[in-house]
Write a structure and sequence with these properties.
Keywords: Glutamine amidotransferase, Signal. By secondary structure, the protein is α/β, with parallel strands linked by helices. The chain contains 10 helices and 11 strands. Strand 10 (208-211) and strand 11 (214-217) form a beta hairpin.
Length: 269
C-alpha cells in the first residue's frame, strides 16, 4: 500500500510547531538548582488502588521513563499500594453512593500494575504521584483512609506532591490542600470539591495548579501536561522538550487552558 504524500499545509503547520516549540525552549535557561537536580537521584512514588485510571498512571510513568532513559536523569520508581502484588485498574463491584445499585465493572477492559511496596514499607520519596480513577469513589465510600494516612505521614518530607484527576480527593481528605489552590477532573468536579477538605481554593478553570510544592491536575490527559511542567520545573526545559519531541506529544503549557470546564458546565467565560 502506498502512503499518500504529506500535503503542503500539513508540512507548514508541523514546521511552524517545531520552530515555536524550539524557540520557547531557547528563550529559557537552566538554573543552577535545576543543574544540581540533574546530578541527584530522584525517588518517585506512585500510589495505586483497585480502579486506578490507566492514563493517570501510565502517562506520567512514560514521561519519567523517557526522562530517565533519553534524558539520562537518575531516578528510582516505586508503585505503592495496600499490598504488594498486582493491582487492577478495574474496581470491584460497588455502589457509587448508599442506596444506589451495585455497579459491576466486569465488562471493562482492565490493566494490572505491580505494586512494589506497601504504605508501610515504601522507601523515602522525593516526589509522590496520586492518580484518580473509578476506584476513588469506592475507596472514599468504604472509609479506607490508608492513602490519606500515607500522604499525611510522607508529605512533610516530600519535595513535590502531585495529584492527577480525582486523585485530588485523597489530598483533600488528607488535609494538605487546606488553604491552598487546587483543581481536579471537571467531569467529577462537584463530587471531589464538595465535602472533602476545608477552605480549599478550588480552581474550576485550570489544566493544573501549583501552590507551594503541591501540584494538582485536571482530568486524565491533564496529568501529561502537569508532569511535563513538573519535570521542566525540576530539570529545566532542554531535556524535557527533547523528550516531548521523541514521544511526539505537544503539551499544553498554559495552566489556565481548560475548555473542559465549559463542556462540563463547571465554568463559563
Amino acid at each position: 500500500m502506498m502512503l499518500e504524500p504529506l500535503r503542503f499545509p500539513t508540512i507548514v503547520a508541523a514546521a511552524l510547531f517545531v520552530a515555536a516549540f524550539a524557540q520557547s525552549s531557547n528563550n529559557e535557561t537552566t538554573t543552577p538548582e535545576q543543574r544540581l537536580n540533574g546530578k541527584r537521584t530522584l525517588s518517585v512514588g506512585m500510589v495505586v488502588f483497585p480502579g486506578w485510571q490507566p492514563m493517570d498512571v501510565y502517562g506520567p510513568i512514560d514521561i519519567l521513563y523517557m526522562m530517565s532513559s533519553w534524558g539520562k536523569y537518575k531516578m528510582t520508581f516505586s508503585v505503592i499500594a495496600q499490598e504488594v502484588g498486582n493491582v487492577p485498574s478495574m474496581p470491584p463491584p460497588h455502589r457509587h453512593q448508599p442506596g444506589a445499585p451495585v455497579s459491576d465493572w466486569g465488562h471493562v477492559i482492565s490493566s494490572q500494575i505491580h505494586a512494589t511496596h506497601t504504605f508501610a514499607n515504601a522507601p523515602a520519596l522525593d516526589v509522590l504521584f496520586v492518580p484518580g480513577g473509578m476506584g476513588t469513589r469506592l475507596v472514599d465510600s468504604s472509609n479506607n483512609t490508608e492513602i490519606e494516612q500515607f500522604i499525611v505521614k510522607r508529605y512533610p518530607r516530600l519535595d513535590y506532591l502531585i495529584s492527577i484527576c480525582t486523585g485530588a480527593v485523597f489530598l483533600a481528605k488528607a488535609g494538605v490542600l487546606n488553604g491552598k489552590r487546587a483543581t481536579t477532573n471537571k467531569a467529577t468536579y462537584n463530587w471531589v470539591t464538595q465535602g472533602h477538605g476545608e477552605n480549599i481554593k478550588w480552581e474550576p478553570n485550570a489544566r493544573w495548579t501549583v501552590d507551594a510544592n503541591i501540584w494538582t491536575s485536571s482530568g486524565v490527559t491533564a496529568g501529561l501536561d502537569a508532569t511535563y511542567a513538573l519535570m521542566k520545573h525540576i530539570y529545566g526545559p532542554e531535556e524535557v522538550d527533547k523528550v516531548m519531541a521523541l514521544i511526539e506529544y505537544a503539551p499544553h503549557t498554559d495552566p489556565t487552558w481548560d475548555p473542559f470546564a465549559v463542556f462540563h458546565k463547571v465554568c463559563w467565560f
